[in-house]
Automatic annotation (TrEMBL):
Protein name: Uncharacterized protein
Domain of life: Eukaryota
Length: 83
């Protein structure tokens, strides 16, 4: 079970086009970064490839500690909110 916010959402089938801009959440549901969904690449069915636009909250030894803007990372779908 994911520790992300229950309000985090992934693509809903009712959406006509997959949204691209998103917020990345930590395990407590706090926004830690803004990014852009990247089509293609290799990610499992539970993850998306995300291009980091801006990191707003970094904790020591956290998942974004060494990530910089313009880097593509893999992030759990349940911890992404499309905006």
């Amino acid at each position: 079970m994911s520790g992300c916010s229950p309000f985090a959402n992934v693509y809903r089938p009712s959406m006509p086009v997959l949204p691209r801009s998103c917020e990345l959440l930590d395990w407590y549901g706090a926004t830690v970064s803004y990014g852009t969904l990247q089509q293609g690449g290799r990610a499992s069915r539970d993850f998306y490839n995300i291009l980091i636009d801006k990191t707003i909250h970094v904790t020591e030894n956290g998942p974004l500690e060494d990530v910089v803007a313009s880097e593509i990372i893999v992030w759990e779908k349940s911890c992404i909110v499309f905006i």
